[in-house]
Amino acid sequence: MAEVMYDPAKSKRVIVIGGGLTGLAAAHRIHERSTALRRPVDLALLEARDRVGGVIQTEKQDGFTLECGPDSFITNKPWGLDLCERLGLKDRLIPTDAGHRRSFVVRKGRLLPVPEGFVLMAPHRLGPLLASPILSWHGKLRMMMDLFLPRRDDDAEESLAGFVRRRLGREALERLIQPLVGGIYTADPNDLSLKATLPQFPAMEREHRSLILAGLREARKRPGRLDRQASGARYGMFVALEGGMGELPAALAASLPPGTIRTNTSVRRIVRNDPISPWLVELLDGPPMEADSVLLAAEAHASARLIDAQDPGLALQLRAIPYASSIIVNVAYRRDQIRHPLDGFGAVVPAIEGRPILAVSFLSVKFPSRAPAGTALLRVFIGGATQPELCDLDDDAIGELVRQELRDLIGASGDPLFMQVGRHPRAMPQYVLGHLDHVAAIRRKLARHPRLYLTGIAFDGVGIPDCIHAAETTADTLLDALANAAASAA
Ligand SMILES: Cc1cc2nc3c(=O)[nH]c(=O)nc-3n(C[C@H](O)[C@H](O)[C@H](O)COP(=O)(O)OP(=O)(O)OC[C@H]3O[C@@H](n4cnc5c(N)ncnc54)[C@H](O)[C@@H]3O)c2cc1C
Predict the structure, then answer these.
(1) Which domains are assigned to the chain?
(2) b or e along 372-393 (b: 16 or more beta carbons within 10 Å of the residue's beta carbon)?
């Protein structure tokens, strides 16, 4: 490798590696801010696949809008909405249909509504919970003990399952919370770090002692803001894009100067001789590229491979973040082929039911424009951390499994109009016990590499708004460092 010194006064080539939402949002922010400050940056975004968007992928078929990855995002964290506004996508946002904002949970093969007002882990109303057949009387009484149990006063790491068992009991965990919360992370709640995944719940315990009291008090304080009938996830807070979630990466890509994005460009590794040299970005195919700053926005395990030669210790830490694989099957039926009224947004399946699916979402009920009239578009979720072996099944076996499950659960008969199997190998990081300390250790190691930045779904939150926020914050840090280097060289 040639000896080239980093010259802060003139070189400002920035390479972003990974063209998923994180890499795109970071590149967009770098372009947006450097243009506003009139400090142009020579920006490149390298993506291994033949398209950008990463796990976000929308396809159109016969009047249906298929979401192969995410189908919506939450708006109580502002960063998704804010980015859509800056991209001119505000008028493209659509809310979930107000008609059926509830979900079901499977019990002994039947779909039972999640009690009205039950949101993730805390009930905002007691009546529907006490009347619900999802929990036995014993389970309900154990849950009510939360009203009297003392708060835990140490700050020790606790798993999500441990926390729920301690406060609400085993049955509430197995029948309600494991399927509702575990589904978001396609995770086993016994492994998930509560502090890293849902820090608002230990905060509730600290402030109110009881989760039930906290939920009831919130409902009393903000009666207008809580949808009384809503249950499960907070569906009123979710939005999608009219043409599908793929509009977001497409708009981000279109906002960048032509030639910035290079698809089919897989990075092999990044190296440099010493901290004052530029980074050399070596590609699987093609000549290496030089960069003053590099922003890694690939999956943690992929970033580990890229940095292995330069810092094996950092690579090891990145590899240690476990990932789960999953499959999302889009499946369409004529409406009259399905017996169930589909009067909700979908159903989650507790692990204790022993079924081979995690959940089914009624996408065309949630967003009616996703399917032509007289049809139903469903999404079936398979695999995750608890059933990884199912991800090895071929498409035919997955198709058969989906048909059978939908026949049993919602009375879907006959052949579906079509089925599309989307695979997400090692795409969902698991924020396991110790995650926050682990990320802090990664950041300490990263700090030894000037002008190298790292972000993505693996670190500070898995949702779309979290990834956007992390990407923009990292892009700002990168630009500030470039500006400081230029200022001290002047
Ligand atoms: C199945 C699934 C469903 C989800 N549903 C929702 C939802 O409904 N709502 C929500 O808010 N969030 C959802 N999420 C989370 C959401 O998808 C993420 O927040 C976000 O899309 C992650 O983007 P990312 O860019 O960090 O990662 P990715 O999308 O994984 O992108 C990483 C990119 O890096 C590229 N790359 C890897 N290695 C290299 C290399 N060597 N060279 C070049 N490029 C490389 C990859 O090809 C990929 O394109 C879901 C996640 C999954 C997995």
Answers:
(1) 13-54+246-321+432-489 (3.50.50.60), 58-100+323-429 (3.90.660.20), 116-148+157-227 (1.10.3110.10)
(2) eeebbbbbbbbbbbbbeebbeb
The pLDDT tens digits of the residues spanning 48-84 come to 999 999 999 999 999 999 999 999 999 999 999 999 9
Residue 155: predicted pLDDT = 81
Residues with CB under 6 A from ligand 1: 17-23, 46-49, 54-56, 69-73, 266-267, 297-299, 302, 306, 326, 328, 424, 427-428, 456-457, 462-464, 467
Q: Which amino acid residue places its CA nearest to atom 41 of ligand 1? A: 267
pLDDT tier for residue 276 given thresholds of 50, 70 and 90: confident
**Residue of the CA atom closest to atom 27 of ligand 1:** 20
Query: Rounded distance, CA 471 to CA 135, Å?
Result: 41
Q: Which of 283, 288, 300, 328 is nearest to 423 (CA)?
A: 328
47, 457, 468, 469: residue to mutate for ligand 1 pocket, most atoms within 8 A of CB = 457
Q: Is 0.90 topped by the overall pTM?
A: yes
Q: What is the tens place of the pLDDT at every residue in 178-209?
A: 998 877 888 899 999 999 999 989 999 999 99
